[in-house]
Amino acid sequence: MGYGKNAKTFRDNGMLETGIEISKTPFGNDLTIYHGSITEMPFDNKLYDGIFFTD
Length: 55
Fold this sequence. Notes:
Blueprint: H1 5-12, E1 18-21, E2 32-35
Parallel strand pairs: 1-2
């Protein structure tokens, strides 16, 4: 389960972010979070500058 520790660090450093979380952990309203498995996300046509993954 994620608690947004890394998301907060990225946000505090001025990064725009989109999160993927399998759990329904609340992160607040200032972060876009997709809930579910990364293998089922609709990102085929999106371009990102970087991807950060933790397990």
